Every structure is written in structure tokens, then in C-alpha cells.
Known about the structure:
Low-confidence stretches: none
Transmembrane segments: 31-48
Order of helices and strands: HH
Mean pLDDT: 96
Helix content: over 70%
Largest sheet: none
Structural class: mainly alpha
Number of helices: 2
Keywords: Membrane, Transmembrane, Transmembrane helix
Radius of gyration: 19 Å
Number of strands: 0
Protein name: Membrane protein
Distance between the termini: 52 Å
Shape: flat
Amino acid sequence: MKDSIQLLAAAVAFSIIAWMFWHFLGNGGVGVISAVALFLLVADNIRLRHKLKAEQRH
């Protein structure tokens, strides 16, 4: 019972966050999502390059 209430509360919270995101950003939300995705890809690429260099040294 407790788990289902927590799941319902999380669903409500995330739906409110999603509504606020699209309501306040509108079409700019796509640009924000794209920018965040690009930033994460660049950060992951840098992390993997450092890991690869570290493995080549050993």
C-alpha cells in the first residue's frame, strides 16, 4: 500500500514538472532538451577519452 502511494505521488510530481516545463518554455523546450543532450554527449565523450588514455598507459 505504501509503495503504491509513493508511486502515485511521484507520478503526480513528475507530471507537474513536465507541465511546468512545457508551459513556461513552450517551443523553446525542444532547444533546452537538445542543449542538455549535446552537453551530456560532450561530457561523456571527454570522460571516455580520459578513460581510454588511462588504459593505454597501463
